């Protein structure tokens, strides 16, 4: 173990090199009792590059040249080191002077023995093994195996008895509370949901019942209303018809009685008027009336006409005769002056008087006209007179 | 490089099938991204995590706001069974909340879901129908289902599905039919329901009767119910063992006998006697519906004659029961004792 003090820089100022051999860390623990044989080693001087004063750290534009006030100069440093060495030597000597176990007696030997339960192998030397490794040139680096640290040969067993670490019942309580609480909460939620649904269902059910009942009631009432209304309408109709018929019948009866009354004397009057207008006729009578009487009338008319004509002729004749007589008389009056005006007029009047008057006239005329020469005229007159008499008699007979 | 895991064993409370849920407000956006990733495992894990989160209504609201429904709709069309099942489960969980339902209606999820009606996996369809069922509880949801034209499909499916799913479909149909029954009536729902009334499963019978109640609310429904001779079956069901079936059968009768023809059909099927027996059961719904049905029958003169002898029972009912039953009993007595 060479000290790893830095090379003195006195050799060359051009390059500064620092090397430090790898070494196992010394263990400063006092493992064993200090033995007289082994000298104390000097403390190792080691250099850690991180804490080396000469490595410049930090800003390089304000270098500390010279000594820092907190640090001792190199001279002081050497003095300190020598002091330390002397102290060490002194301690060594003092240790040698310390009382130790006495020398072994004759025939005995002092041996150091371990008295613990388990023997321990004591070795100062740390086992060092040099190992080398070299990757195979032709093989790829295999993957690093899982690092399982090797057993170093220490078997340790431990037994934790009941109640040593913790009290289970106490510790588990909060956990259990949480677990059970969560479970119950979740299940309560589900149960509540189902219960809510079930409640909704029952209330819906009850509502539906009510609704159905009410609806049925409404429909029934509607139906009833409809039927009653129809019934009422029908009855009203019937009643109206009855009344109508009643009134009609009454009217008919009234009309009938009135008509009867009115027509009561119709029949006789009808018959009367019919009879009057000649609808009821005795056929013989009718026949006589239709056939005979017109003929009779015609004949009577004829006869009358004849007599009229005869009378007219007679009147003419008379007139002529009278005029002639008048002339004659006037001639005569021129001789006699006798007038016969009176009977002329009377002869042409009433028929009944006429034959008598004609008779008188005749007599008068014949009396007065005897002496006349016109006897033919008188004979004609007489003929006519006879005819007229006949006519007149016929008339009288009639 | 160091991993966050300390040991090769996972801590015991992590579900390996779930994606890790990020903390706080990052949870949902991160899940949204994972949902749209290409890796199947990531998507599945994200869906599993979502299923748990969707039970909380705040998360549902947040999810809808972020636009989760679009990603969910896309993953409905996925080819993997698990993804579809989990997606439908997520949607079902969302549908149990009102916000979820509103979101469905806004984002048109109903249509997207309807593509899965023919899915081969039964669990998928079951979740789908559960989602529909919850959606139908809301009146606007029911209207949404109707306006998407799903009623004829559902009615048709009623026949072909398994029993559990049939129950769900019946549950869905009942509120939808209450909203608007015209489409269903034209797709022959009454004969189907009539068949279901005769099934062996008590639940199905009761739900079918419940659906019949909804069908026979409008006049057209009443006429069809009478035409298809459902009334004798309903009378027969009045003698069933289960209270629920009895109650719903009495309810259906109550609506079907509003028309005169229905009344006489019920009287012909001797409905009065079973209904009188039902008046004394402990379930209040049964009593209520039976009382109402008897009230309907008492409108007819023959019914009134028979029921006049039983007025005392109604008086008992009037005294002891709940408000609705009391009122119903009073009305019944009034009707029975009415003279024209």
UniProtKB/TrEMBL annotation, chain A:
Record's subcellular location: Cytoplasm, Cytoskeleton, Flagellum axoneme
InterPro entries (UniProt xref): Radial_spoke_3
Protein name, as recorded: Radial spoke head protein 3 homolog
Basic and acidic residues bias (residue ranges): 92-106, 329-346
Pfam families, sorted: Radial_spoke_3
Coiled-coil zones: 211-241
Composition skew (Low complexity), residue ranges: 68-80
GO CC annotations, alphabetized: cilium
Keyword Cytoplasm (UniProt): yes
Taxonomic path: Eukaryota, Metazoa, Chordata, Craniata, Vertebrata
UniProtKB/TrEMBL annotation, chain B:
Pfam families associated with the record: HEAT_2 (PF13646)
InterPro entries: ARM-like, ARM-type_fold, Armadillo, RSP14
GO cellular component: radial spoke
ARM repeat segments: 229-271
Protein name: Radial spoke head 14 homolog
Organism the protein comes from: Carlito syrichta (Philippine tarsier)
Gene, per the UniProt record: RSPH14
């Amino acid at each position: 173990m060479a000290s790893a003090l830095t090379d003195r820089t006195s050799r060359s100022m051009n390059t500064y090199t620092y090397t430090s051999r790898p070494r196992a860390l010394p263990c400063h623990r006092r493992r064993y009792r200090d033995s007289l044989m082994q000298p104390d080693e000097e403390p190792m001087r080691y250099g850690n590059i991180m804490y080396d004063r000469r490595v410049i750290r930090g800003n390089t534009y304000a270098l500390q040249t010279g000594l820092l006030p907190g640090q001792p100069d190199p001279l002081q440093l050497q003095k300190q080191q020598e002091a330390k060495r002397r102290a060490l030597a002194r301690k060594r000597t003092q240790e040698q002077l310390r009382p130790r176990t006495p020398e072994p007696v004759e025939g005995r030997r002092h041996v150091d023995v371990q008295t613990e339960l388990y023997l321990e192998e004591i070795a100062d030397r740390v086992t060092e093994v040099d190992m080398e490794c070299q990757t195979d040139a032709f093989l790829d680096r295999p993957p690093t195996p899982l690092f399982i640290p090797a057993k170093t040969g220490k078997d340790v067993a431990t037994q934790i008895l009941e109640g040593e670490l913790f009290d289970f019942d106490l510790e588990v309580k909060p956990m259990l509370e949480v677990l059970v609480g969560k479970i119950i909460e979740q299940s309560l939620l589900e149960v509540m949901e189902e219960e809510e649904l079930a409640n909704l269902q029952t209330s819906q059910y009850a509502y539906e019942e009510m609704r159905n009942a009410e609806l049925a009631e409404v429909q029934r009432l509607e139906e009833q209303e409809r039927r009653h209304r129809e019934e009422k309408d029908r009855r009203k109709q019937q009643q109206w018809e009855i009344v109508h018929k009643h009134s009609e019948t009454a009217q008919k009866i009234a009309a009938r009685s009135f008509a009867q009354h009115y027509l009561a004397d119709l029949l006789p009057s009808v018959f009367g008027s019919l009879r009057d207008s000649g609808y009821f006729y005795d056929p013989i009578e009718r026949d006589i009336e239709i056939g005979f009487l017109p003929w009779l009338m015609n004949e009577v008319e004829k006869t009358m006409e004849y007599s009229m004509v005869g009378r007219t002729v007679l009147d003419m004749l008379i007139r002529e005769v009278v005029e002639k007589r008048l002339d004659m008389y006037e001639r005569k009056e021129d001789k006699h002056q006798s007038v016969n005006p009176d009977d002329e007029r009377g002869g042409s009047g009433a028929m009944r008087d006429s034959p008598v008057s004609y008779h008188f006239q005749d007599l008068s005329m014949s009396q007065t006209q005897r002496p006349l020469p016109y006897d033919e005229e008188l004979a004609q007159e007489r003929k006519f007179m006879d005819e007229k008499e006949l006519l007149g008699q016929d008339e009288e007979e009639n | 490089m160091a991993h966050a895991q300390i040991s090769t064993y996972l801590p015991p409370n992590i579900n390996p099938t779930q994606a890790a849920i990020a903390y706080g407000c990052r949870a949902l956006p991160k899940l949204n991204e994972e949902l749209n990733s290409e890796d199947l495992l990531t998507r599945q894990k994200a869906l599993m995590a979502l299923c748990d989160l969707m039970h909380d209504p705040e998360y549902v609201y947040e999810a809808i706001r972020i636009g989760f429904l679009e990603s969910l709709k896309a993953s409905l069309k996925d080819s993997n069974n698990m993804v579809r099942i989990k997606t439908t489960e997520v949607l079902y969980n969302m549908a149990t909340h009102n916000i979820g339902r509103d979101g469905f209606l806004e984002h048109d999820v109903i249509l997207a879901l309807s593509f899965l009606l023919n899915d081969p996996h039964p669990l998928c369809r079951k979740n789908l129908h559960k989602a529909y069922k919850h959606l139908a509880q809301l009146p606007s949801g029911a209207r949404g289902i109707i306006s998407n034209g799903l009623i004829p499909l559902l009615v048709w499916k009623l026949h072909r599905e398994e029993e559990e799913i049939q129950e769900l479909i019946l549950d869905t149909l009942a509120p939808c039919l209450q909203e608007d029954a015209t489409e269903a009536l034209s797709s022959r729902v009454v004969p189907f329901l009539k068949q279901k009334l005769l099934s062996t499963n008590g639940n199905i019978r009761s739900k079918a009767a419940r659906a019949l109640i909804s069908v026979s609310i409008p006049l057209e429904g009443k006429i069809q119910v009478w035409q298809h001779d459902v009334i004798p079956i309903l009378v027969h069901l009045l003698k069933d063992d289960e209270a629920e079936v009895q109650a719903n059968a009495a309810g259906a009768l109550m609506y079907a006998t509003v028309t005169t023809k229905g009344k006489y059909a019920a009287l012909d099927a001797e409905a009065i006697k079973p209904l009188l027996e039902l008046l004394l059961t402990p379930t209040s719904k049964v009593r209520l519906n039976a009382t109402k049905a008897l009230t309907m029958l008492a409108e007819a003169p023959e019914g009134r004659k028979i029921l006049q002898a039983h007025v005392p029972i109604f008086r008992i009912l009037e005294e002891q029961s709940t408000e609705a039953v009391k009122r119903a009993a009073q009305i019944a007595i009034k009707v029975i004792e009415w003279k024209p």
